[in-house]
Amino acid sequence: MLRISIVESSSQVFTLRVEGQVKGCWVEELRRSCEQALVRGSRLRLDLRDVSFADSCGIALLKNLSSRQVGFVNVSPFVGEQLKGSAS
Question: What CATH superfamily is the domain 2-85?
Answer without folding.
Answer: STAS domain (3.30.750.24)
